[in-house]
Amino acid sequence: MVAAAHFAALLPTGVERISVHLYGSLALTGRGHATDTAVLLGLTGARPDELDPDDAAAIASEVRARRRLRLPAGGEVPFVPASDIVFHPRESLPRHTNGVLFSAMAREGPFTRTYYSIGGGFVVDEEGLPLGFHRRLSRRLRSRDRQSSG
């Protein structure tokens, strides 16, 4: 979800189509661990530190039923999770076995980004830089824990 939300936030205007390719362990366990649903939610702009779990199923069901994805910056694109999320269980990307490649076709041409799930819920981009979600979540959890214990 983190990588998908990051990708969605970077999308240029005029996106006409999005596809997602999951590699290695992300593909092997993807459906069983709801990785496909997390990707779908992230592409709508949902983030794990902000999404109410009670809303997740409704959002995912709506995308699957309508076969359209509402983009965070506005607009919609056709999106059929069964065909637009592709699983490559026997392939890995160069930097890590748990890779995901996002691709969008926009008016200006293709727009792609690659991310890696490196364990413990941590995600890095193609340069190996961590996505900032974890620092914010960590602070939020520490703050919540202090309030509940005090």
Automatic annotation (TrEMBL):
Family: Belongs to the iron-sulfur dependent L-serine dehydratase family.
GO molecular-function terms, A-Z: 4 iron, 4 sulfur cluster binding; L-serine ammonia-lyase activity; metal ion binding
Name this polypeptide is given: L-serine ammonia-lyase
Limits of the Serine dehydratase beta chain domain: 1-127
PANTHER family registered for this protein in UniProt: L-SERINE DEHYDRATASE, L-SERINE DEHYDRATASE 1
Statement: the UniProt record of this protein carries the keyword Nuclease: no
Origin: domain of life: Bacteria
Record EC number: 4.3.1.17
Lineage, top ranks: Bacteria, Pseudomonadati, Pseudomonadota, Alphaproteobacteria, Acetobacterales
UniProt catalytic activity: L-serine = pyruvate + NH4(+)
GO BP terms in the entry: gluconeogenesis
Cofactors named for this entry: [4Fe-4S] cluster
Entry keyword set: 4Fe-4S, Gluconeogenesis, Iron, Iron-sulfur, Lyase, Metal-binding
Presence of keyword Lyase: yes
EC class: lyase
